[in-house]
Amino acid sequence: MSSVAVIDYGMGNLHSIAKALQHADPSVDVQISSTAAAILQADRVVFPGVGAMRDCMLALNGSGLAEVIRQVANTKPLLGICLGMQALLTDSAENGHTDGLGVFSGHVVRFAEGLTDTDGVRLKIPHMGWNQVRQQPHALWQGIAQDSRFYFVHSYYAQPDDGAIVAATCDYPNAFACALAQDNVFAVQFHPEKSQTVGLQLLKNFLHWDV
Amino acid sequence: MSLAKRIIPCLDVDNGRVVKGVKFVDIRDAGDPVEIARRYDREGADEITFLDITATHDNRDTIVHVVEQVASEVFIPLTVGGGIRTLDDIRRMLNAGADKVGINSAAVFRPEFVQEAAERFGSQCIVVAIDAKKVSLPGEVSRWEIFTHGGRKGTGIDAIGWAEKMVAYGAGEILLTSMDRDGTREGFDLALTRAISDAVAVPVIASGGVGCLDHLADGVLDGKADAVLAASIFHFAEYTIQQAKEHLRMRGIEVRL
After folding, report:
1. Does the distance separating the beta carbons of B2 and A117 come in below 8 Å?
2. For the domain that residue A53 is a member of, what is the CATH number?
3. Residues 86-115, chain B, touching A (beta carbon < 8 A)
4. Using the beta-carbon criterion (under 8 Å), do B95 and A19 form an inter-chain contact?
5. Does the N terminus or the C terminus of chain A have fewer Cβ atoms within 10 A?
6. Which of A122, A130, A171 comes nearest B4 by C-beta?
7. What's the total number of domains in chain B?
8. What is the pLDDT of residues B191-202, one digit of tens each?
9. Which among B167, B235, B94 is positioned nearest to B244, based on CA atoms?
10. Based on the structure, what is the number of domains in chain A?
11. Whole-angstrom distance, CA of residue A170 vs CA of residue A177
């Protein structure tokens, strides 16, 4: 039986992602794990996250899980979600300045204030709700229609140094990277576990991803 | 390509059953919450909100079980409001599978609670629910005040100033209910919705008064709401969520279909 570990570092609710993974493929053993041994033993790893970057990095550095995630990023399929994606970059502008894990080279920045849509209506921050995702070719998009809508809720977004690692973009109102892919690491800004059928399909693809 | 406006069906849950009252009285039974949530998910609801109106503390466990069951099979955002008073209440709802909680009276009693909640769990899961009623007389400049206890208790607090304060304290979203319109089927209070939406940078959900599909579209186009919430028009199967979305699209609004 193949296994997936959902990293538990004390930030937010892991119920949804664990349930969604189980639903996406009932044959996979889904475990919520907070220890290095359990995470390193799993076939693949999901790195979720909600909340603020500084708390996230404090928890990861304090528990030693930061090193474990870097190790996973070099060895097996890893899926970062929301703050779990942002934490994989070099650093973030959130909380002044916070160093990330540096798996992806680049920065995390905040949406500018006062942005408007094409009708001149002010865009709200956080960017919250269902927005269209423009895919670049990648195994994890299999079976998901181009421009499908996924559920987002965030105020910061990734700006990778190398445009070649962008696996999808989204417009708010300008295009930003909402998915990054590099070797065995895939990361998304939206919440696949809250994006109904397309989200479950992405999770299923991850659970079957042969890097 | 742009962000879709959201349609959010709301389930008022009392002792494990979905009910809907007109101005908080005359409650009609509308069914099993888990079954209804499943149906809304199939029809394409963008989120689902549960409002726990159970008065007694003993029956609080019921809503936790409802959320647990729904979260195991419905993979869209879930919000739970009603009776959220402590950080522990929030933790319980999030652990049960809710993505956001709605805080109403507890914020009025002690605004710092919103700050503590946002710091602990993140603004993305803190929705401040505001029940507002018009207090200005005809001919005067419009003014709304916030009410608690299901619209029975006035507070003297100005609704617009309150919304701004709650956002400054960390609210990630505002759920705005017009107490004048709730249950009347006369449509949202559009002036109120627009005033709050213009005042704050976070998304605003319009609620209270939907009687037909044009009301939903008006909430977005005239009220500048980012999302629209309705209960009875969906419960009693007058319209499906799908029909509501098709109608919004016909009026030129971006939706997820």
Report:
1. yes
2. 3.40.50.880
3. 94-99
4. no
5. N
6. A130
7. 1
8. 999 999 999 999
9. B235
10. 1
11. 7
Spatial CA neighbour of A126 closest among A172, A192, A187, A178:
A172
pLDDT in tens, B32-67: 899 999 999 999 999 999 999 886 666 778 899 999
**Is there a catalytic annotation at residue A82?**
yes
C-alpha A135, offset from chain centre: 15
B49 Cα to chain A: minimum distance (Å): 14
Is B164 part of a structural domain of the chain?
Answer: yes
Contact A125 B124 (CB under 8 A): no
B184 lies in a domain? yes
- Pick from B75, B97, B226: which is nearest to A200 by CB? B75
Residue of chain A minimizing CA distance to B172? A126
Q: Judge whether B256 lies within some domain.
A: no
Q: Smallest CA–CA separation between B26 and chain A, in Å?
A: 34
Residues in chain A: 211
Strand B17-22 versus strand B25-31 pairing type = antiparallel
Domain that includes residue B209, residue range? 6-251
CA distance B119 to A170: 28
Residue B37, min C-alpha distance to chain A (Å): 13
What CA–CA distance (Å, rounded) separates A49 from B203?
21
